[in-house]
Amino acid sequence: MSIAHGIKTLGILGSGQMGLGIAYVAALRARVPVLIHDRSEAQLKKGLAFMDKLLEKDVAKGKITSTDAKEARDRVTVVLPDRGLVGLRDADMVIEAVSENLSLKEAIFRGLSAELGPEPILASNTSSISITKIAAATLPDGEGASSEKGKKSASRVVGLHFFNPVPVMKLVELISALQTSKDTLDRARAFAIACGKEVTTSQDVPGFVSNALLMPFINEAIMCLEKGVATRDDIDKTLKLGMNHPMGPLQLADFIGLDTCLAIQQTLYTGTGDSKYRPSILLERLVDAQWLGKKSGKGFYEYPA
Ligand code: 3HC
């Protein structure tokens, strides 16, 4: 018997490429009302404009009707920065999709727990950070991890890892924290399926399955470039034509964002203590230069505005 997700309103925190993509599939495919919040009004505007463009393109391709597109767009409500997290109070599930930074995520989950109370499911779209650590940040003031309130609060936290571009990629990786309840896991899985996704599960290890495999591969490709083993174009061409990857690893790194790649690789390195995960120095330098890939106009490749 399939479990109902029971989500009547979804909250999303972060309107970058991931948050926006999640809003798109939730509004269009799961057909739930979405509240989307970001601390940057400019980012919210940019995200919503991109969503309008995607919907228009899907109508033009005949994938959806203009009524589907209008209904999906009408389901999305922007929560402006000045309203803060309290603007997500009507949500019965919130998916956090902000940058890959543990202290930022801990502060957000602490805030969500304080503002929204113990009921809503709190999901993180983190690519690599421990869901168990994030869940521990939700303990209400004065409550220990083993008090009834403490256990309940942490038990509704779960990892729901989408892939970029969210409207296209078929997978969601589901991660249980040590504290996550079965009900939370079942409902989060049902919600991902309602968004049109297939679901795999991973234990809460650094990078989960997806990035424990993908990011060392990308890091190794950057090290090949760094050592002069091959040119940028030949590294990417080898993987595209030799292995049928849709993008070469350097192009994919630019697409994901070099800051995100570095943050994930650092989590693998510090989380395991294994030197095989040492981030490439070239990757660090590119991020130092703020050459972050497609989103900043320059990474391994150039992206004219
Ligand atoms: N948003 C929405 N849709 C998009 C899109 C975007 N940003 N980019 C492309 N698309 C759609 C296009 O509209 C098109 O749709 P259609 O089939 O209905 O016409 C379809 O995707 C194919 O696009 P294109 O023909 O323009 O280009 P490609 O055939 O080259 O495909 C791609 C583009 C889907 C991005 C493909 O290159 C690809 O699959 N690349 C690998 C992506 C990948 O590995 N993603 C995972 C990254 S890891 C991750 O996200 C995890 C994180 O934790 C790091």
From TrEMBL:
Q: Which UniProt keywords apply?
A: Oxidoreductase
Where's the 3-hydroxyacyl-CoA dehydrogenase NAD binding domain? 10-204
What is the superkingdom listed in this entry's lineage?
Eukaryota
3-hydroxyacyl-CoA dehydrogenase C-terminal domain residues are: 207-303
The keyword Iron-sulfur appears for this protein: no
The protein's matches in InterPro entries, at most eight in alphabetical order, are given as: 3-OHacyl-CoA_DH, 3-OHacyl-CoA_DH_NAD-bd, 3HC_DH_C, 6-PGluconate_DH-like_C_sf, 6PGD_dom2, NAD(P)-bd_dom_sf
Which segments does the entry list as coiled coil?
Answer: none
Q: Which Pfam families match?
A: 3HCDH, 3HCDH_N
The answer, when asked if Oxidoreductase is one of the entry's keywords, is: yes
Record's signal peptide: none
Q: Give the UniProt family note.
A: Belongs to the 3-hydroxyacyl-CoA dehydrogenase family.
Quote the protein name from its UniProt record: 3-hydroxybutyryl-CoA dehydrogenase
From which source organism is this entry?
Answer: Somion occarium
